[in-house]
Amino acid sequence: MPINTSTATGSIALGLVGLDSIAAFKSIADRIFRRPQYDEASLAKTAYRDSDGEATEESLRAFSDKWQRVTIAVFSVIGLGISLSLAVLSTLRDDLNNPVLNWLQFTIWVLLAIQAIAFFTEPRPASRFRLGQFAFVGSIIPIAVAGFEIQQAYLSQDILFQNQTWIRLVAGAIVSASFRGLFTILLPRRPNVYFEGGVVDKEFTITALGRYSFTWASDLLSFTVGRTNLEISDLPKLRAEKRADSLRAKFERAQGTGNIWKGIFVAHWRPLLLQMSLTTVIGFLTFGPQLALFNILQSLEGRDSEGWTPTRSWIWVSALGIFMLLYSTVEAWLFWSVWSKIAIPVYAELTAVVFAKSMRRKDAKHTKSSKEEDEAQASAKALLTGEDKKEEEDDDEEDVKKSRQSIINLAAVDARRISDVTSFLYMIPSAILKIVIGCSFLVNVLGWQSALAGLGVSVFIAPMNIAVTRRYTNAQVKIMKLRDQKMAIVTEVIQGIRQIKFSALEEQWQKRIRQVRENELGALWASFYYDVFLLAIWILGPIAFASVSLTVYTILYGNLTASVAFTALAVFGSLEVALAVLPEIITNLLEAQVSASRIDEYMASSEKVTNTVPSDSISFEDATVAWPAEHHPGEQQGEEERFQLRDLNFHLPKKGLSVISGRTGSGKSLLLASILGECDVLGGIVKVPVPPTLKNRFDHLATSANWIIDDAIAYVAQMPWIENASIKDNILFGLPFNESRYRKVLFACALEKDLEMLPDGELTDIGANGINLSGGQRWRVSFARALYSRAGILVMDDIFSALDAQTGRHVFEHALSGELGQGRTRVLVTHHVALCLPRTDYSVLLENGCVKYAGTIDELQKSNHLADILREEHAAEETHQKAVDDKQDVQDSEGGTLQKVISNTSHRRPSTTANVNATTTSKDAPKKFVKDEEREKGSVRLSIYKAYFKMGGGLLTWATTASVFATYAVLMVGRSWWISVWTSSSSSSAAKPEMFQALLQHPMSGSNTVTTGRPEVDPQLTMYLGVYIGISALACLVGAVRFYCALSSSVRASRNLFDSLVYAVLRAPMRWLDTVPMGRLLNRFTADFHLIDSRLGYEIAFLLAEMLDVCGIIFAGIIVSPFVIVLAIALLAICLKLSMTFLAGARQAKRLESIAKSPVFEQFGSSLAGLVTIRAFSKTEAFIETMYSKINAHAQSWWAVWLFNRWLGIRMNLVGAIFSTLTAALVVSLPGMSASMAGFALSFALQCNAAIGFALRQYSNLELNMNATERVVEYSEIELENQGGAAAPAAWPTEGRLEVDNLVVSYAPDLPPVLKGLSFTVEKNQRVGVVGRTGAGKSSLTLALFRFLEAREGSIFIDGLDVSKIKLHDLRSRLAIIPQDPVIFSGSVRSNLDPFEEHTDAELNDALARVHLISSSDDEATLTSQTATPHPAGGTGATTPNTATAQTTNSNLFSSLSASISEGGLNLSQGQRQLLCLARAIVSRPKIMVLDEATSAVDMETDALIQQSIRAEFDATTLLVIAHRLSTIADFDRILVLDAGKAVEFGTPRDLMDIENGVFKNLVENSGEKAVLEKVIFG
C-alpha cells in the first residue's frame, strides 16, 4: 500500500472527525467552565419546555436515552481498543506495514471516544440528539478509512490478507463503528411535549432513524385504524412553526410590500433550498437504474463470447438495487418536505392572511351605476338570462369580487391552488435536469445524430404546446370568474332560501343557478378540451422522440441491439414523465398566478383607517360623512354621487342618553357608522374616544368596581349579529363570567322568560345568526351582549323595532336607563322617541341630508322644536306613564318571527321553575342546535361509485372509456414487444420469428424475415420501422382520445351531481336547512365541487391507466418467466397489505380534513357578516385567534393525510426496489435468457414498482377524493318536502276564505304538539291581527299555513280546499308573506320586484309609489318627496332626504328600476328593504297574505302611510298580520290571541276589549299607547 496515499487519506479523515467533534468539545467545555445558577441535569429530569410545547410529568418519566448512550460508549471503547491494537501491531511487526495510517485511525477513535463522553456531560436531551447527528457522521468516517485500507490491500495483493489477526481486528473496527453509528441515530430527541392539552407531532421527538423512515407515523396510523370515529383532538398538534399565527407573522414579515410570491419565497427559502437540493440528487439518481440496465444487457449480449464472466452482471444487479433504494429514500423525503414544509403551511398562512385582511378591510358595500338606462336594462337582463356578454363580464366580476363568498373563495379555492403549485414547483428544475441528463445519456447510447433528431421533434411541437397552453390559461381565468359568479348566486340563494320556499320559486332559482353553472361547465369543458390537446402533445413528444431517434439510429448503424433499444426506451420513459410534467406544471403555475393576482388585488383593497380624532366625548364639527366606498388608484369619483350627511355640528353629552331620529332612510345608521369609524369622512372633524386595545383591557382582572371602561365601545346593529354559540356565550362575548351582572342583564333585557322556555336555557345552542331565535329575542340577546360588556359607550341602532310596547318599555326602564345603563354614554337610533323622551339628554333629528334639530331637551323645548321631533309619535301623551314595577313579571307578547326555526320549540319542555338557574344546573348536556357534521365510516360505499358512474353516462359510456384505455395499454406493451422482436432479429444473421409465434394469436410468415446474407444491410428494416412507427402513431391518437372520453364523462357526472344537490337543497325541509350551517353547504358547493369538477375525472383516468399498466407488466412477465409472476404476485400482495392499512387510516383523516374545512368557511362567513360589530367591540384580534385555531385544526388533519401517504410511499418504494433487484437477478441467472428478452422483461420490471405503486396510490387518491362525491350525494339524498298532491284550480283561491279546524301541529312526530286543537275562521278579505307571547304559536300557525309543518290532526281549508291535498308549489305560489327580516337579492330593483319578468315597468313603478319609495303623480307629498336613497355609484346604507339640487342632496335609487342592489340589499336601510318586500307583494296581488312585523323598521309616520296603502291595495286580500305595534292592528276586522298553541281570544277589537281581564285588553292597557288604541278601537 503506498505510504503517502494512505497517510493523506488518514490525515483527511482525522481532520474531518476533528471538525465533527467541535460540537462535543464545546458541550464538554460548557459544562466544565460555565457555572449555571441551577442544576441543569436535575432540571432536565423534572421539566422540559420548548417552543412547541411542554412535557408532562408522565412523558418525562417515560423518556429515556440512557441505554443508547451506554451502548455508544461501549462501542466507542471497543473501537478505541481495536484501533490501538492495530496501531501497536503494525508498529511491532514489519510485515504489517503503514503504521502511520493505523495511528491516525487510533487518534480518530480517541476523538470518537471524547464524543461519547459528551453524551454524559450534556444534560439537555435535544442537545444530545444534535450531538448524535455529529457522532453518526463521525462513525461513518472510520468505516470509510477501513474500507479504503482493505481496497488498497486487495489491489496490491498485500500480505495483510494472509494475516488472520489483522483481518479480525479490521472487521471488529468496522463492526464497532457500525453499531456505534446505529445507536447514535437511535437517540430520542426529547420527551413528548403537549400543547393545549394535546401531544405535539412527534417528528422532532423521536429518534433520527425513526424520523427518516417515517416510523413515527406507524403509531398514529395504527391508532387511526383502530378508531371508528376519528376526531381532530385525536390527532397530534402542529409544531409551533407550523401553526397559523407563526406562519402569518413570518409571511407578512417576508412579504413586506411585495406580492404573494415574494412572501412565499422569502418566508420558505430554507425548505425551497432543501427541495432544490433533493431535486438535484434525484435528477441524477433517476437514471441510475437505466445505467445499470444498459450494463446488464451489454453483459448478457456477450454471454456467448469467450472469457465472459457473470461478475460484471451481478455487480450491476447490485447497483440496480442500490440506485433504486437511494432514489426511493430521497424521493420520500422530497415529497414530505414539499408538503409538510411548504404546501400545508402556505395554505394555512394564506388563509390566515386573507382572514386578517378581511378584518381590516373597508366595509364598502359598493354597487356600480349604469350611466345609460339601456345599459342597465341589458345588465339586468343578462343577470336573469345568464347571457355571457363580453362587455358585461368586467362589471359582473367587479360586483362578484365584493361579495362575501368571493372572499371565502380566496381561501377555499385560490389559496389551495397556490398551495398545490408550491408543492409542485420542484418539478420544473427536476424536469429540466432530467431532460439534460437524459439527453446526455442518449447521446452516449445512440450517438449525437439520433439524439439530436429526437430532440428536433420536441422543438417542432413546442410552438403548438405554447399556443394551446395560452388558450388553456385563458380558460382557467374564465373558470375562476364564473365560479365566483356561481357561488355569489348560490350563497344568496342559501341565505334567502326561506323567502324562496315561501314564494315557491325553487324552480325559477334552480334554472337561474343552472344557467350560471352551465357557463362555468362550458368554460371547464373548454379547459379540458385544451388540456386533452396538451395531453396529446405530451404523449406525442416522448413517443415521437423515441420513434425518430431509434429510426435514425437504425438507418445509421443498420441494426438495433437490445442493450441500445431497451436502455433508450427506459430513458425515454423517464423523459416522458419530465416532458409531460413540465408543460402541465407550467399551466398549473399560470393558474396559480391568476389566483395569486386575485389575492394580491384583494390585499391591496382599501382598509378601514382611523378617520376620527381622539377625544373624551363624541362630537361633530362641520363634518360631512358618507358610506364607505372602494377607491381604486387613478379612479375619479364624484363625491356628489355618494350618499352623504353634511354639515354635522353637535356634541353628544358624556354619560348621557342621546337619541337620533328621522324618517326611514334619513341616514341614522350612517351617523352611527361615523361614530364607529365605519364611514368616509369627506370634510370636517368627527371626535370619538379611542377604545383601549383588547390586550390593554386586562379583562381577566375585571371586577364590579372597575368593570366599565369609559372609552370602550359596544354596538347593537340594526340587523342583530349573533354567533353560532350558546346564548350565554353570546352575551359574555369572551368576557369573564360575573354572576351578579349577568343576572341583572338577563332581567333588564327581559330574557328570563325566554330562557325558561328554551330547551336548555342559557346554554341553548343558537344556530347561525340566531336562526332559532325570534326577531325580538335576537335583538335582546344582541343588546344584552352590549349591556354586559365593559363598554362605557353604547351605540344602538333601532333596538325597539322588534319589541312589543310592554317589552320595549321594560328594556328602556331597566336596561337603557336603568342601573346597567347609567354612567354610560348611550347613543340610540329609534323611531320610538316618545318612549325615550323622559330620560333623554340630547336629541338629534336628521332630515334632508343634514341635522334639522340637535340639542338638549330643554333647548329643544325652548325653541319649540321638540314638537316637530314628536309629531310622528302617535302616543306622545302616554310616555310619562309609570313603568311597571321592577319585580313584576314581564308579559312578553312579542311575536316570534318566521325566522324562528322549527327546532326552537321542538325541544321545549314545560318549565318546572321560574328560576333561571334551573336551566343551568341541569345534569343533561345541552342539546346542540347545529348537529356535528356526520361522516361515513370505512371505505367509500360502492353505491357512491355507482351514483357517480351512473351520472357520468352509465355502464356503456364507462365501458367504452375503459376499452379505449385498454387499447392504449395494449399498444404500449405491443410497442416494447415489437422492439424485442426487432432487436432479436438484429442480433443474429438470420432472425427466427418462429421463436415468438407462441406469443402471437396467428403464425408469422418466416419468408420475409430471412436475410440475404449481407449483414450490413437489413432488408426488413422498412417493415420493422413501419410497424414501430405505426404503433407509435396509433398510441398517440388513442392516448389523447382516452382522456377525452374520461373527462367528458366526468363533466357529465359533475353537472348531474350539482343539479341533484341544488334540487335537494331547494326542496329540503326548513328544519334541515336551519340546523345545517351555511359553511357546510358552501363547503360542498366550493371545495367538494372543485375536486369533482377539476380532479375526479383525472383521478379516474390515471387509475385506469395505471391499472392497465400493471396488467401489461404482468402479461410481459408471463411471456418471460413464470418466476417473474411469482415475484410480481408477492410484490402485489405486500403492496396491497400496505395500501389497505394506509387507506384504513388515511380515509378517516381525509374525511376529517373535508369536515375541518367547514368551520373555516363558517368562521369567514360569520365574521364578515358581523364585521362592524366585531370591530366596534375591538374583538378583531380575538376572532383572528379563533380563526387560527380552526385553520390549525384543518392543517392537523391534512398533515396526517400526507404523513400517512409518505409512510406508504417509502415502504412501497422499498418493496419495489427489492422486486426489481430480484427480477434482474432472476434474468441474469437464467442461462437461456437472450439479451432482447431480458431487456423486454427488465424494462417492465423497472416499471413494475412504479406502476403498482402509482396504481395503488391512485386508487387511494380516487377514494379519498371520492369523499367529495360522498359528501355531495349525502346532501342530495336527504328527505325532501312532499312534492306530491293534486293540482290546485287555476284561479284558486278566488275569495281568500281561511278555515282552521282543530289543527294539531308538531315539529316532529316524536315531539309534543305546538298547536293544540286550534280552530278559527277568517272570511274573505278580512284583516286579522295575530298577537301572543313568544312561544304562543304565531310562527307555528304561519308555518302550518304554508305547510312547512304538516298537520298531525285537523285541517286548513282555503276557499274550501284542504291545503294538505294539493301540491306544495301550488299552495305557496298562491299565498304571500312579508317577513320581519326582509330578503333582498343582489341585482336590480326590477329583478327584486319581478325576478322573472312577468310584469310591466308601469306596474313595478306603481307598486314602488304605493309603498312611498318613489313619488306618484297624484300624491306629491309622499315619503319620497322628503327622503331619498343612495345613488348606486356611491357607498351603501341608509339615506337622507332628496331635494332638487344634486350637489347638496342624495338621489333616489328607486327612481330607476335598473338601479343596482348589492348583496343582501345592504345598500338599503332596513326600512327600505321592508318596503321593497311590500312592493313585491303588491306586484303579486295574492288573495291571502301574511305580514310578520313587515314595517317594524320604519318610522311611525311612514308606517301610518304604509298602513293606508295596505288598506287600499289589499282591500281584496285576506290579511294575517303579526304585529308588535298594536296601533297597526287596532282597526282590523278580527284579532286572534294565541297562547300555548290555542286560540284564547278571537273576535273584533271592540269585543275583545269588553272581556274582563282579557289578554288583549291587558296588552292594550300595558302598551304605553292606551289612549290612542282605545280611540282607534272605540272610535
From TrEMBL:
The keyword Kinase does not apply. Keywords: ATP-binding, Glycoprotein, Membrane, Nucleotide-binding, Repeat, Transmembrane, Transmembrane helix, Transport. The chain crosses the membrane at residues 70-91, 103-121, 133-154, 166-187, 272-294, 314-336, 424-446, 452-473, 532-556, 562-582, 955-978, 1023-1045, 1100-1119, 1125-1146, 1212-1231. Residues 406-591, 969-1264 form the ABC transmembrane type-1 domain. It holds the Pfam family ABC_membrane. One of its GO terms (cellular component) is membrane. Residues 365-401, 900-932, 1419-1447 are annotated as: Disordered. It is found in: Membrane. Residues 911-922, 1427-1447 have a biased composition (Low complexity). Its main location: membrane. Residues 618-873, 1298-1565 form the ABC transporter domain. The keyword Zinc-finger does not apply. Gene3D superfamilies: ABC transporter type 1, transmembrane domain (1.20.1560.10), P-loop containing nucleotide triphosphate hydrolases (3.40.50.300). It is a multi-pass membrane protein. InterPro entries: AAA+_ATPase, ABC1_TM_dom, ABC1_TM_sf, ABC_transporter-like_ATP-bd, ABC_transporter-like_CS, ABC_transporter_C-like, P-loop_NTPase. GO terms for molecular function: ABC-type transporter activity; ATP binding; ATP hydrolysis activity. Belongs to the ABC transporter superfamily. ABCC family. Conjugate transporter (TC 3.A.1.208) subfamily. This is Uncharacterized protein. It comes from Penicillium angulare. The lineage of its organism: Eukaryota, Fungi, Dikarya, Ascomycota, Pezizomycotina.
